[in-house]
Amino acid sequence: MSCTRANGGAIFEARGLHKRFGGLHATRDLSLSVEVGQVHALIGPNGAGKTTALAQLAGQLRPDAGTIWYRGRDITALPMAARAARGIVRTFQITAVFEEFSVRDNVALAVQSRARHHFAFWRPAAKDRRLTEPAERVLEQVGLTALANLRAGDLSHGQKRQLEIAMALATEPTVLLLDEPMAGMSRAESETLSTLLERIKPAHAILLVEHDMDVVFRLADRVSVLVVGALLASGSPQEVRADARVRAAYLDEEAL
User: Is the entire prediction scored with pTM above 0.85?
Assistant: First the structure.
């Protein structure tokens, strides 16, 4: 599909976002963009405003000022469901899977939401090849085929994170908004998920909120540093790593 890009190669962009909660200015003139084939990491200390920023980008919160653009169109007024239908999907810090359903059925549900099939009961839908076949392709893509019949609640924390990514991919997104996907993971689980994100990166525009600096500097093409709701710095990982203001405000020397 041809489209008008918002800013150079950017397919998704925020321009001058502001958000207040009473006397708290949670987002201050925030502007950022992400391109297909790019990981843009948004980092900062606790309380910097990353979650508020992500909520505005996903459509959960309406900014008090500023605009959000997708494929050259202003989508600031669109709610989260409408953005998801257009290809902008968010994952959360806390895993959100249907634990009583199988791994395959979880992904089939995501396919169903994308396809807008309307079934009277889930059980017949779970056996519908229009749902299960795409689900199995996504499970193969993320490396969960061998666990397809397992109850989702029996997965490890890292595997649940993989399943969440699979469910997001099943909706055929262009933009992925990932909220601390490595939170609570072991080093081995983090390595597995990092490899998966590298594999899917060419076909997606990924905005990554993450505390693990090893992951950030491994995956990110661009890094933006948020402090007290405002961007302190934005640039290549090398530029951000070398920025004295970033070191002073956030990054521990050992992480660099």
Answer: yes
